[in-house]
Design a protein that fits this description.
- With 418 residues, this protein is mainly beta.
- Helix content is 2%, strand content 50%.
- It has two domains: 2-304, 7 Propeller (Methylamine Dehydrogenase, Chain H), CATH 2.130.10; 322-413, no CATH class.
- The chain has one helix and 38 strands.
- The strands form ten sheets. Strands 18, 19, 20, 21 and 22 form a five-stranded antiparallel β-sheet that branches. Strands 1-29-28-27 form a four-stranded antiparallel β-sheet. A four-stranded antiparallel β-sheet has the order 2-3-4-5, with no helix packed on it.
- Strand 4 (37-41) and strand 5 (47-52) form a beta hairpin.
- The longest helix is centred in the last third of the chain and has 8 residues, at 300-307.
- It is globular, with a radius of gyration of 23 Å.
Length: 418
């Protein structure tokens, strides 16, 4: 894991706004700052543009981008304002309560307030309120999925709701811990994080949302620092198929989604206090420190997973020699070629491996003639002309076998079929 620190001017110190002080849009990132500025930086950390709204003082300050980055909405004090990507003003709406958090979808905006969430339908020249959710209960955050199919809200009493936007059907559940501080979608997965360090993950199986496993408890006691009175929260983001959880302000855990097991932990100096957390597709995880600094976490293993983008679907254990390569990646032995082949998609958790204890439900190497394939959880990796190709089995894989002696066909059996 590589950690880089970017020192920014003091005017870039974040406004504490429930995990939205730093957001990514395309190759750029935007920072909601305590000075009342909305700064946009490119991936080289150079300032592209800036919007000054005035000092927030006792107001609230939050922002969100449309899915393609064409528009940005800002909840500032008692106003909701819509701008285009060049910060040209399009429209403004008076709010009944200060907007503590805002989320923006293709044609919906959700403003979280101390009196529930106000749901709007928007165009470039109209805002129409269509719902008031969790009336009289503080709503702390909301999120739209990148696919545009889902929206989720979290309330201060621990209740969460997931909406299917085309039908407006709702899934609601009470989490075992209150005060939702962060929400993140990844494909058909969603995670809710709470202030005290719990993270609850759910998966959509095509019919309903179900809990993946019991709550993940991220327990870490931070060292004493100058910000002990600052409202620390648990923040979440996804890095490839790993869940990243920032908690107690000084710790980031990387959790394998399928099993819920922590595979990496990064500990920051005691002087840090993270108020923003997001994922940037070319840089990695971005953390916004209370001093205005940015920390960039790049994980070679997760970045390799992101580069394996060829995906398809098909119907859905291991006994093969592995070793840790000198470069820090696992290797698989190809008995046909009598050589060790790097397998960068297998995380080097330690130098000693118990195959049954790896954090994936299925781990199998199958080989026939010149073809080598690896089943890893819900994914299949096949070596083709020296390059690993990648497929996803959404229902999971229990086992895989070669169909014929030429090694050109494999059959995969899902957990659902067995």
């Amino acid at each position: 894991m590589q950690v880089d620190r970017v020192k920014l001017p003091s005017s870039y110190a974040p406004y504490s706004s429930w995990n939205s002080s730093v957001l990514c849009t395309g190759s750029s990132m935007s920072l909601a700052c305590e000075s009342g500025h909305l700064h946009v930086l490119n991936d080289r950390m150079c300032l592209e543009k800036s919007l000054f709204l005035g000092s927030p003082r006792i107001n609230r300050f939050s922002h969100a981008w449309s899915p393609h980055g064409d528009y940005v909405c800002v909840a500032y004090g008692s106003h909701l304002t819509l701008y285009d990507s060049n910060f040209s003003l399009l429209l403004q709406q008076e709010l009944s309560f200060f907007g503590r958090h805002v989320a923006m979808g293709v044609n919906h905006i959700i403003v979280s307030t101390s009196n529930g969430a106000y749901w709007y339908q928007w165009t470039t020249n109209t805002l129409k309120q269509i719902a008031h959710v969790f009336k009289e209960i503080p709503v702390t955050c909301a999120m739209f999925s990148a696919c545009g199919q889902w929206a989720a809200l979290g309330a201060a009493d621990g209740r969460v709701q997931i909406y299917q936007l085309d039908t407006f059907s709702t899934f609601e559940i009470l989490l075992p811990s209150p005060r939702i501080t962060s929400i993140s979608f990844h494909g058909n997965n969603i995670v809710f994080a709470t202030k005290d360090g719990h993270a609850d993950t759910f998966i959509y199986n095509g019919e309903s949302w179900t809990r993946r496993y019991s709550s993940i408890r991220c327990v870490a006691v931070p060292a004493l620092n100058a910000f002990q009175g600052y409202p620390s929260s648990t923040l979440v983001a996804f890095y490839a198929n790993f869940l990243a959880v920032a908690h107690s302000s000084q710790y980031v855990d990387l959790i394998e989604m399928e099993s819920g097991r922590c595979v990496e932990r990064v500990v920051f100096p005691a002087a840090t206090m993270m108020l923003g957390f997001t994922f940037h597709p070319s840089l990695g995880l971005i953390l916004h420190d209370v001093s205005g600094e940015l920390f960039i976490l790049t994980w070679k293993h997760a970045h390799t997973m992101l580069q394996l983008t060829h995906e398809t679907t098909f119907d859905d254990n291991l006994h093969e020699a592995l070793r840790l390569g000198e470069t820090g990646v696992m290797e698989i032995f190809d008995s046909v070629q009598d050589q060790w082949i790097p397998a960068p998609f297998i995380s080097p958790i330690s130098s000693h491996y118990d195959l049954n204890a790896l954090p994936w439900s299925t781990f199998q190497v199958i080989q026939s003639q010149q073809i080598l394939a690896v089943v890893l959880g819900y994914a299949v990796f096949a070596l083709d002309n020296g390059q690993w190709k990648h497929w996803i089995a959404p229902t999971g894989i229990s086992c895989a076998v070669a169909v014929d002696g030429r090694g050109t066909n494999f059959s995969f059996f899902s957990h659902r079929c067995l």
